C-alpha cells in the first residue's frame, strides 16, 4: 500500500486551522482545539507516549519530533513522511511500498478494549467494513471527556456543590452520547479523573493550581479523588444522569480507578464515592505498588484490571515517558516490565478477574506471544489500522516520487 504521508500548510498560530500541520515547541492541553483540527503535529519536545502525544495517537494524528533549531524552517506546505520519520519541505509525493502482513490479527487478541477520545472514535471503529470480532469495550479518560466538552474540572469542582453537580451532569451527558453509538454486546468504561497539576494549569482559569516539583508523582489519580471535596457530589450527579437517560442500558457504563497503589485506597474510594455493592469498579494498574497489589485488588472486589503499560514502564525504569532525551531507556519490552505484566495477568487469572493489557501497535506481536491476558487494549486509530491490514489485500497503483528535502527525524 502507499507509504503513509500527511501533507498540509504549517500552522504556527496555536489556533485551530482545519487540516493544517500544527508546529509547536511542545504540546499542552490548552492546545486541544488546534490539535484536533490538525492533520499532523510537528514539535521539538515530548516523548512518544506523553499524555498529549497519546491523545494524538487516539485521534490518528501523527506526531513528528524535530530539533528545536529546525522549527523555524517549517513554513508553508510540508509533507510528514511516516515511513522515514521525517518532514519534507514542500509537497513531495512518496514512493509506494509493498503491503505488510501483520502477525497478529484482531481475532488473536481475545477481548478487545478500544481506547477512545471522543464519540466519533466509536462510530469510526464500528463503521469498519468488517466488524472487529472480540471488540466489546471502549475506554475513555474523564480528562479527555472534559477536553471534548470544553469543561474545566478544577474550576467546576472548586466553585461549590452546585457547579460540581452541573459538571457531573455534563460528563454524564457526554457518556450517554458515546453509549448511544455502542453496538449490542459493547460497553463503555470511564477512567475517573487523573489530572496532573502541570496539565491542570493549562486548562484552569478561575482557581489557583498548586505548583508541584514532580507532578507525575504528585497529587493526582486515586489520592486526588480521595482529597477533592466536591468530587463525590459530581460523581453522584454523573451516575444519576446516566441512569435517568439510559435506563436499563445504564449497565453498559462502568468506571475504573486511576493511579492507585493498594486495596486500602480502593476500599476508601468506594466508600467515599458511596458506591453500592453491586456497582462494578475496575482498577487501572500503572504503578509498581499496584502490580504487587493486583491479587489484593481482586480480593477487594475489583471487577477487572486494566494495565497501563505506558506509565508502568516509566515508573519501573525511572525513565520519563514525556522526555525524548531518555527515549533509549524507555523500553516497553524491558524484561522488568514484561515480568510485571505477567504478574498482573497471573493474579487476575488466579482470582477469576479479567485483565486487559494496553499495547501500542508496535509492541502488539511481542505482547501477544508472551502474555496470556484475557484481552488487550489498543488506541482506536491503531485498532482500525490493524483491522484494515488484516482484511483481504487490495491492489494499489504505485506513485511517482519527486525531489525531496527532508529535515528532522525521531531517534
From TrEMBL:
All copies of domain PEP-utilising enzyme mobile, residue ranges: 18-80
Spans through the membrane: none
Region (Disordered): 390-411
Example of a GO MF term: kinase activity
A Pfam family per the record: PEP-utilizers_C
Keywords: Kinase, Magnesium, Metal-binding, Transferase
Residue ranges of domain PEP-utilising enzyme C-terminal in the record: 173-356
SUPFAM superfamilies the record matches: Phosphoenolpyruvate/pyruvate domain, Phosphohistidine domain
Cofactor dependency: Mg(2+)
Similarity comment: family membership: Belongs to the PEP-utilizing enzyme family.
Name of protein: Phosphoenolpyruvate-protein kinase (PTS system EI component)
Amino acid at each position: 500500500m502507499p507509504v503513509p504521508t500527511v501533507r498540509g500548510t504549517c500552522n504556527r498560530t496555536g489556533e485551530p486551522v482545519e487540516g493544517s500541520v500544527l508546529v509547536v515547541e511542545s504540546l499542552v492541553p490548552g492546545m486541544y482545539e488546534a490539535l484536533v483540527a490538525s492533520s499532523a503535529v510537528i514539535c521539538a519536545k515530548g516523548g512518544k507516549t506523553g499524555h498529549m502525544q497519546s491523545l494524538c495517537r487516539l485521534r490518528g494524528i501523527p506526531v513528528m519530533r524535530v530539533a528545536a533549531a529546525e522549527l523555524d524552517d517549517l513554513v508553508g506546505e510540508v509533507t510528514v513522511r511516516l515511513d522515514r520519520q521525517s518532514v519534507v519541505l514542500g509537497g513531495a509525493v512518496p514512493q509506494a511500498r509493498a503491503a505488510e502482513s501483520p502477525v497478529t490479527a484482531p481475532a488473536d487478541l481475545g477481548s478487545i478494549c478500544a481506547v477512545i477520545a471522543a464519540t466519533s472514535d466509536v462510530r469510526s471503529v464500528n463503521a469498519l467494513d468488517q466488524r472487529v470480532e472480540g471488540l466489546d469495550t471502549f475506554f475513555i479518560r474523564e480528562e479527555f471527556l472534559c477536553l471534548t466538552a470544553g469543561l474545566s474540572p478544577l474550576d467546576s469542582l472548586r466553585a461549590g456543590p452546585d457547579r460540581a453537580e452541573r459538571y457531573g451532569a455534563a460528563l454524564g451527558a457526554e457518556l450517554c452520547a458515546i453509549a448511544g453509538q455502542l453496538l449490542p454486546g459493547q460497553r463503555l468504561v470511564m477512567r475517573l479523573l487523573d489530572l496532573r497539576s502541570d496539565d491542570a494549569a493549562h486548562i484552569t482559569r478561575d482557581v489557583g493550581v498548586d505548583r508541584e516539583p514532580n507532578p507525575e508523582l504528585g497529587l493526582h489519580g486515586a489520592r486526588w479523588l480521595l482529597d477533592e471535596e466536591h468530587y463525590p457530589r459530581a460523581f453522584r450527579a454523573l451516575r444519576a444522569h446516566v441512569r435517568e437517560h439510559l435506563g436499563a442500558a445504564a449497565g453498559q457504563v462502568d468506571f475504573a480507578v486511576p493511579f492507585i497503589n493498594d486495596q486500602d485506597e480502593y476500599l476508601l474510594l468506594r466508600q467515599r464515592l458511596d458506591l453500592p455493592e453491586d456497582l462494578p469498579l475496575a482498577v487501572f494498574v500503572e504503578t509498581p505498588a499496584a502490580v504487587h497489589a493486583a491479587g489484593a485488588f481482586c480480593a477487594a472486589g475489583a471487577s477487572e484490571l486494566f494495565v497501563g503499560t505506558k506509565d508502568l514502564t516509566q515508573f519501573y525504569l525511572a525513565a520519563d515517558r514525556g522526555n525524548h532525551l531518555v527515549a533509549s531507556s524507555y523500553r516497553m519490552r524491558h524484561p522488568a516490565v514484561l515480568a510485571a505484566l505477567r504478574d498482573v495477568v497471573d493474579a487476575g487469572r488466579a482470582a477469576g478477574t479479567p485483565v486487559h493489557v494496553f499495547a501500542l501497535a508496535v509492541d502488539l506481536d511481542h505482547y501477544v506471544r508472551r502474555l496470556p491476558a484475557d484481552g488487550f487494549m489498543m488506541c482506536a486509530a491503531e485498532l482500525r489500522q490493524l483491522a484494515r491490514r488484516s482484511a483481504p489485500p487490495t491492489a494499489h497503483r504505485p506513485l511517482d516520487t519527486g525531489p525531496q528535502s527532508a529535515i528532522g527525524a525521531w531517534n
